[in-house]
Amino acid sequence: MPDNGNNPPLYSYNEDESGSWKCTINCSRIEAQAIADFDDIALFFDETPTIVARETVPDDHQSWVAEFYLNSEIKPEQVAVFLSNILPEADLGHDVNIIFVPHEDWVTLSQQGMEPLHIGRFYVHDSNCAPSQNPQIRNFEINASQAFGTGHHETTAGCLQQIDNLSINDASFSNIADIGTGTGLLAFAAQHLWPQAHILASDIDPIAIDMAARFAAANDIHIGEAAGQLSLCVASGTDHPQIMGRAPYDLLIANILAGPLVELAPAFANIAATNGSLILAGLLNNQSATVIAEYEKYGFQLVSQHANGDWPTLMFKRILQNGVRETYIHNGKTSQTDGDYGEW
């Protein structure tokens, strides 16, 4: 992997600029997952990076990238040592690229130029695209931002479709929570379909909550505590007085990552209403069995599972166990550290 003199530069850097460092590793899905799931990555760098694993060609398990971002400079020799430890048999060669990203954030850059998205009764577009003129369609204007959830990733799209399906099947909800809301899009969709419901949206990332508030204003979603309004809070998992005080919820939505989803199973069981619905996404197909088993252990029954490429959306119902509703000891938090805001 080190430059042998015949290769293009691995990175470029202007010392007068402020920004962060990005390393992109082109690899297979298995390799990308191994990189994203590696717990001790901070041993090889000066800090714990933010890591994203994603596919670059739909349904092609060989066309994935692992990307990670640090505030400090990423050195090629650091990446070489890291990869030799985690992927000792891989020969990635020039499939590694390190660049310096000036002040503009990587989430915004990755979302720019996306085409409008039409799912069910929802049309998601940015300010550069015209909204749908169909009176049966609810338009949402979501610009590229520092928060996830424009609807273009398979997990957000899967949740949107599942929310729409619930309404088509005449489901009715009065108390809804979207945990890990990102841009707020899923909470906005729920508010449109059940306009008299109390709706709460939370995220571990304060920037995401700030962006959700801005997008709510842009889409005529009113912030507040009353029915028909959207309440926002910054929280790790369910660890917030506002989340606990509003429980139980007859609809819970969580589009985050498989690890936090597994950790939050008992916490979600505690705040889900009996017979309440739970939508989970953010996991890969090969992680679904683990997530399903964990939720079944805590009083949830799998109702449906729909895959969008490699990304399933799971629907559960909170049930009684032997005629009894169990309550579980859990602090409601995930093990994510400050600054680790990985989500889809």
Automatic annotation (TrEMBL):
Domain of life: Bacteria
InterPro entries, per the entry: Ribosomal_L11_MeTrfase_PrmA (IPR050078), SAM-dependent_MTases_sf (IPR029063)
Record's keyword annotation contains Methyltransferase: yes
Presence of keyword Methyltransferase: yes
GO molecular function annotation: protein methyltransferase activity
Keywords: Methyltransferase, Transferase
Regions that span the bilayer: none
Pfam families recorded: PrmA
PANTHER family: ELECTRON TRANSFER FLAVOPROTEIN BETA SUBUNIT LYSINE METHYLTRANSFERASE
Protein name from the UniProt record: Ribosomal protein L11 methyltransferase
